[in-house]
């Protein structure tokens, strides 16, 4: 006898724990997209769960890990939250500002280069088009790359609640492993970075691969010449929270860092390796700061017009009603208007079920493989991590809507093998060629970093992109 439950199954008299991929997904019953912060706070007070990039929450929902979430509160249609604003003394990142927006911001590149470097290390181009800096800090993992950068920049987090807004220094924001001072009825509204022309900083990361890698160790080091203690360091993946250290020179900074590091053994690395690589990373970071050789990443790829844009709050279908639950989603898919219910489905599932676009594949359901890549309002995204309601009133292109030389080039070069990953590679490759008509090999590799081929046919795929460019 086999009885299905949420976390276990019973086979005969035995209870067997289900793996997370075997558990039924949690599908919230309501999707609301408020257009004001006040509207969002009202929904949170009623038990709603905020979502912006969705790159963590959508995975948790798909694994059935958030059964208490009944209402998704999408913040991406609140205009002020999607803006980067600046004054002579500070940079303000709205809560829905994405990593690619930071990378493409001239002000951030000039005064917060360490954050630009950290944002460029997160995920893949598709993820950086959706994932937000605020989301990266509120999930509070000690491996999250932007946290060390924001710490050495002395960032301040603005939090809104029913009693108004409060400012919390990033150094006081985290209360423990994956916990923060933000409660369930509050909302991060912005991250404020004071500019300091006398300080420079660099971000360094060690991972198991060049892209889509969780940090083995990540750190940011700042240097202010002439200060009594010129070096400050914030280190991730060596303790339950990101830890900090200071020093007057390389040796004292390394010693202070080792004193606060309490790493564990896990699948990514043993503790002793983390301590060893920590020394090397700090020394290289300090040398780069002293020599003032701090490289900046290239502008974002696979984004609207090559420059990451905030989600478009004005792209609203006739069916869209701000601050009210959305019952039906209306999307322009490959030039045709498609309507369908279930706004809390992932965009991937909605496209397959209601638009009939079976070329959008589910390979991992957690934004790792890129098989579900589509173009949403001009940006490549992982559709498995986007709530379908976010596409209401938007324009979506799937592989069925392509007509490009790259498709024929895939055939000529043998880039099509089992074919499962091919739609995602085509979507990423076409978007790359639109932005960079004559890409170098390194640009091709960067543009396709969010797509995995289980047949290991990357050489042929890269050759197809190069041939289509010619």
Q: Categorize the overall geometry.
A: globular
What radius of gyration results from the CA coordinates?
23 Å
Structural class: alpha+beta
Strand composition percent = 15-25%
Taking strands numbered 1, 2, ... along the chain, how are they ordered across the largest sheet? 7-8-13-9-10
Task: Tell me the number of structural domains.
Answer: 3
Mean pLDDT: 91
Number of helices: 15
What's the β-strand tally?
A: 22
Relative helix content: 25-40%
First-last Cα distance: 61 Å
List the uncertain runs.
1-5, 306-320
In the CATH hierarchy, what is the class of the largest domain? Answer: Alpha Beta
Main β-sheet: number of strands, strand sense, barrel status? 5 strands, antiparallel
Please identify, by name, the CATH architecture of the largest domain: 2-Layer Sandwich
Fold-level CATH name of the largest domain: Uridine Diphospho-n-acetylenolpyruvylglucosamine Reductase, domain 3
How would you describe this protein?
Helices cover 29% and strands 21% of the residues. The protein folds into three domains: 65 residues, no CATH class; 213 residues, Uridine Diphospho-n-acetylenolpyruvylglucosamine Reductase, domain 3 (2-Layer Sandwich), CATH 3.30.465.10; 65 residues, DNA polymerase, domain 1, CATH 1.10.150. The N terminus is likely disordered. Helix 9 runs antiparallel to helix 10 and helix 12 crosses helix 15. The chain has 470 residues and is an alpha+beta fold.
């Amino acid at each position: 006898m086999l009885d299905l439950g949420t976390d276990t199954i019973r086979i005969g008299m035995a209870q067997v724990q289900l793996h997370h991929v075997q558990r039924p997904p949690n599908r919230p019953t309501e999707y609301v997209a408020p257009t004001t912060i006040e509207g969002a706070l009202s929904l949170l007070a009623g038990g709603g769960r905020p979502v912006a990039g969705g790159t963590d929450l959508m995975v948790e929902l798909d694994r059935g890990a958030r059964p208490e979430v009944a209402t998704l509160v999408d913040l991406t249609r609140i205009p002020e939250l999607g803006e980067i604003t600046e004054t002579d003394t500070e940079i303000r990142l709205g809560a829905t500002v994405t990593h690619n927006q930071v990378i493409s911001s001239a002000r951030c590149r000039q005064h917060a280069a360490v954050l630009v470097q950290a944002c460029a290390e997160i995920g893949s181009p598709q993820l950086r088009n959706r994932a937000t800096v605020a989301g990266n800090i509120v999930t509070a993992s000690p491996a999250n790359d932007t946290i060390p950068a924001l710490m050495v920049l002395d960032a301040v987090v603005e939090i809104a609640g029913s009693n108004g807004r409060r400012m919390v220094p990033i150094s006081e924001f985290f209360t423990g492993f994956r916990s923060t001072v933000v409660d369930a009825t509050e909302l991060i509204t912005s991250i404020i970075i004071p500019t300091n022309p006398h300080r420079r900083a660099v971000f360094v990361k060690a991972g198991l691969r060049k892209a889509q890698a969780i940090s083995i160790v990540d750190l940011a080091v700042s240097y202010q010449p002439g200060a009594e203690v010129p070096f400050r360091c914030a280190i991730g993946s060596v303790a339950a929270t990101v830890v900090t250290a200071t020093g007057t020179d390389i040796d004292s900074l390394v010693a202070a860092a080792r004193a606060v590091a309490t790493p564990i053994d896990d699948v990514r690395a043993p503790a002793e390796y983390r301590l060893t690589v920590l020394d090397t990373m700090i020394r290289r970071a300090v040398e780069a700061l002293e020599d003032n050789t701090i490289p900046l990443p290239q502008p974002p790829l696979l984004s609207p017009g090559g420059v990451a844009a905030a989600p478009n709050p004005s792209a609203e279908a006739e069916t869209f009603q701000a601050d009210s639950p959305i019952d039906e989603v209306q999307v322009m898919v490959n030039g045709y208007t498609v309507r369908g219910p279930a706004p809390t489905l992932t965009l991937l599932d909605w496209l397959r079920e209601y638009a009939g676009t079976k070329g959008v594949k589910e390979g991992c359901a957690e934004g790792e493989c890129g098989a579900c890549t589509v173009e949403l309002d001009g940006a490549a995204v992982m559709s498995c991590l986007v709530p379908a309601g976010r596409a209401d009133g938007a324009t979506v292109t799937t592989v069925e809507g392509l007509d490009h030389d790259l498709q024929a080039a895939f055939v000529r070069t043998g880039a099509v093998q089992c074919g499962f990953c091919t739609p995602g590679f085509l979507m990423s490759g076409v978007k790359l060629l639109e932005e960079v008509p004559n890409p170098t090999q390194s640009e091709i590799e960067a543009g396709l970093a969010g797509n995995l081929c289980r047949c290991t046919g990357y050489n042929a795929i890269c050759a197809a992109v190069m041939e289509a460019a010619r």
